[in-house]
Design brief:
Four copies of one chain form a homotetramer. By secondary structure, the first copy, chain A, is of the alpha/beta class. The first copy, chain A, has 14 helices and twelve strands. Chain A folds into two domains: 240 residues, Type I PLP-dependent aspartate aminotransferase-like (Major domain) (Aspartate Aminotransferase, domain 2), CATH 3.40.640.10; 97 residues, Aspartate Aminotransferase, domain 1 (Alpha-Beta Complex), CATH 3.90.1150. In chain A, strand 4, helix 7 and strand 5 form a beta-alpha-beta unit. Chain A starts with 12 loop residues before the first helix and ends with a helix.
């Protein structure tokens, strides 16, 4: 019953077999190999246009380098105050942008709203050098709270970014999970909704370490390879990242793994609610934040369930944990066994 | 007949099988897993003392982060002027050290001498703020020219570093190749000879992407994890690096692959010399820099040999390429087939 | 009637005459001159101990370099969310600290409380690399709202900083104004209350451009000259900063100018209140934030008064500007003429 | 007899009196004052076109910020290996460019040649990410050796920069001295010869601390104010820099002071040669590098002459100091008294 994180799993079978398949013979280094080219073409196909794709190997690198490519001196990067780039990346974005400031914006379910974004931007009026300058906007899809922006919501945020002439970045560490939920195309969820640069994450959904920075504006991508190399993120045997993506995309494997993870999360949420429980936020991807009695939590842990307490912030009173309650985080992945979900729900039922 | 680079090969069988072996079940992320612990212990054993080991995934990251941990404002980092950190890392060391200056030192065979190092340091007298301050010394073992520092040479460089109270870094991208050549222990070649921090490379010698920053001074390692994470170099599924090292070290695999690569290089060199040819530098690891007639080079290429021209600098007149000659770089690896070496030498013989 | 800012005035007579007085003959450059030594001694005397003093020429530089000297990779710098370093320095602190994150803390009158500081620090638990690490705490004395920390308040903040083993920085852009208000010694207001490093500002209080970074911990100052020079903040004709300080300190000039500025602010506040007006915050230094009818503001401006609207945040309902009201900022300085204050108050009275 | 440096003098009378003249009344801060505007217009007039001028207060800041505005990730900045930015700025250029690499080029008299520049650039072929990318070229006018580039020489360097599409920066710390020597217009010596951005120095030639970054390409200047502020180099009472420039330019004061300094240097050089002495380089500005017997040096010092030994590099054998000789640096300025020059030469004559 391991629901600790989607990065506790290893690599999905399709990824592992692709790695083995492509581990033969010689191949040029540093991303100049034919496999990288063919995987790049798959990205073009996926996004229904020519895109500029750069492989990296951590999500933090993908995010920070994306933002670096759009940095400005004294630049302000607008994001949710609980976003990964703000809270979980040890200032990598600040460092890679040579001192950018991440402006954290509040918002329910880790989603920023156009109103809150516009309000935050007023602190950076055009031309007032003391305050610095607007540089970019970043949203996470799916969010840290397991929620998903609708296409309309993304578009509305894009309007605000456009009004200040700054690009929109999407942290897609859980891109596939969100995509499956929305049921739209990858193009719909990105450039058609206004996304300029994307951190396309594959690690959490079944790779060892495969992330890609995807530019929809080819001009904006110019020179990006120097940012990547300057950060130490160009791999010599780069084909091993390409190979992971090759397996990831083969036969729709990546959508299947994401769908499974989402299904398991939904099943967990429904099971919890069926027992009278509640979740902190809507379950729209592969994360569930149940609010349980502490005694239940203890019994689940005793039964071997692996899940974490979560410092849930800004919940409405009707939802926030009561005195003897605790908010937990559960994450599902391609590796989550349905029997573990069943066992969890049974254990929970017995613990009520 | 591929002698293009040791990073054109994939992963060695021992590494690939370890990856598969450890790809089961859940394991904590970010290097807190048991496999990482056990591999860390292997590093202790290898170096015959407790060391602080940090996995990263590119050699550039290992080098730049090692230097960052020892950086100072206005810091001067002394290295060979043809070293990888100076020539091939796109300013990653300068960036990670927040503006360090790499001071390139001349020296035969890409090796710096104590005399040249001491001389270079005189431009940075203690306390003269304009010139900046000495920060560290970095040597490559084996070097970019395929040569190897003797233990005495390392020790002599250490004396100069000590005289200015700065640490000695070793870029061990080809650590195993050098170690096999010297036939000493890993401890002998590092901390016993005065190395303070090591980039322990395994990628070129059979991994996909496995490098480690090894501190021999545990105190100097304090806080290093923040440098790594700030650079985006902490992997979530970090066990995949650990797994590579596990395979790498198992049954002495890493020494066997390095020995094979070295043997192939030696065989190449001897075969070339037997035919009256010469090499730019002594062949002490897995790189050969033959100086051939351009017509030979063309015939070899026509026969399918993959090797590169090399802009050899500072060679004595008796060795430097003549008008119709060219200096080439050939790199062997665990994957080099002896039959390819034979074919190469035969082709060369026929081309004379 | 100019109350726009204390940096709209030029240099005070004592400063200007000192500049002229010391503008003769040759003197060593880069701060190695005898005048710098003698002014350094004045700092020792002022603080009743040996301090390490470094002259710079902007307050932003003083702050950012102070923080840089105490930076850590992934470092979090705790400050009030309306502080100058957070709002008005165009990411200079983030840049000089190589990507530090300024964590803005709420608090009345631009003062942080120990409770809020402690709470903010909980987001950075020791050893959790993702969140980064605590690096320093910074307070402004006097604050951006014209309030002044008591010695007890500073000490209480120091306790929180100590509990996490990080230093306490004081932004003393209006150091003299605060000191005059508290009526204590400079030692009392700094190191005796727990301040580790101080931006000692003199520009606003009568210099052209004279600021000093003062370290009370001499060990922490080691190497600071390299931070200063690396930032381009070491002046060749450095004696011109020393000369300003020489004039500033002569005959208690600096305390007299600060006292005058404070008196003018107090007189303004009292006059406003006498007419039934109110201020957003207590007037404890040389800034007044009156809340006036918009019609009053317009009449004052028409009469030639120079003052700015201020986006006052977080005021209690009883104080916050009503619908037809506006919060203004008025700053007094050594140059403020009492007749201007009188005229202002008369104009205000007539405008009611 | 003080020939130590041109920054050992204070401010010239015209500068000091302008400072006093403009020290009255209130004036907007941060460079938005009318005096700054009028001085800006003087720059337009001087350069015979609209330029974008930004005041800073140290030459190091002017240089580093100029280069920062043209930086690229992994960027290589080409300069003479003895240039101020390479040798005397404590990595400020590297820091402000977020890790730029200064590529030092050899050349007689501290001047780079088109040939050597082109050769150095070959190490950075277009599109090879490992080596980084060309970013800018920087020359000093006058140079560290007191020599001056001719207009033709500047133009020839510009051709090489153009061939790689990078801008040409001029470090004009001794701009006036060079201009007087060439006898051309400021426009001729800068943008007409291909200079894109200029560090216009006034400190050495009579100001306390007045430098300006001058962009001839207005588009390239966009956003530069954010670089300046991010570096802590925007002054609140910025008019004090403007005032210095106002005095500097009034009645051709700046050309007169430079001409005087140059004349004194020429007189020194001629006097030395008349006594059979020699100089290391041609004396084309306000620096003289005589090569004297060590015994002469000692007698001069005993007589009160202030001058420094200089580690002259790369001199031809016929000029380089012999065993009992020493190369010295002497710098003249607006403050150099002709009587001191006479005394020096007499003392020297007596010491032969």
């Amino acid at each position: 019953m391991n629901f600790a994180s989607d990065n506790w799993a290893g690599a999905a079978p399709a990824v592992m077999s692709a790695l083995a398949r492509h581990n033969t013979g010689y191949s040029p280094a540093y991303g100049t190999d034919p496999l990288t080219d063919s995987v790049g073409q798959k990205f073009n196909d996926l996004f229904e246009r020519e895109v500029a794709v750069y492989f990296v190997a951590t999500g933090t690198a993908a995010n920070a380098l994306s933002l670096a490519a759009h940095s400005r001196p004294g630049g302000a990067i607008f994001c949710h105050r609980e976003s990964h780039i703000q809270v979980d990346e040890c200032n990598c974005p600040e460092f890679m942008t040579s001192g950018g400031k991440l402006v954290g914006i509040p918002g329910d379910g880790a989603k920023i709203t156009p109103t809150a974004l516009r309000e935050a931007m007023t602190a950076f009026p055009h031309g007032v050098v003391h305050h610095g300058q607007v540089a970019s906007v970043s949203i996470s899809q799916a969010t840290e709270c397991g929620t998903v922006y609708t296409l309309e919501e993304i578009d509305a945020i894009k309007q605000v970014a456009d009004a200040r002439s700054v690009p929109l970045h999407m942290d897609g560490a859980r891109f596939a999970n969100a995509l499956v939920t929305l049921g739209c195309s990858a193009a719909d969820m990105t450039w058609k909704a206004g996304v300029d640069v994307l951190s396309f994450g594959a690690t959490k959904n079944g790779c060892w370490c495969a992330e890609a920075v995807v530019f929809f504006d080819l001009e904006a991508a110019r020179g990006f390879e120097y940012f990547r190399k300057r950060g130490g993120h160009l791999f010599s045997k780069s084909r091993f990242v390409a190979a992971q993506f090759d397996g990831y995309f083969s036969d729709g494997s990546w959508l299947a793994t994401a769908a499974h993870a989402n299904d398991m999360a939904t099943k967990l949420a429904e099971g919890i609610r069926a027992q009278g429980g509640r979740t902190a936020w809507a379950v729209e991807a592969n994360e569930v934040f149940p609010i349980l009695k502490r005694s239940q939590f203890e019994k689940l842990e005793a039964a071997g369930a692996k899940l974490y307490e979560w410092a849930a912030k800004d919940l409405p009173e009707t939802i926030a944990p009561g005195e003897d309650e605790v908010c937990l985080r559960m994450v599902t992945s391609f590796a989550t066994a349905e029997t573990d979900v069943d066992t969890f729900l049974e254990t929970l039922g017995a613990a009520v």
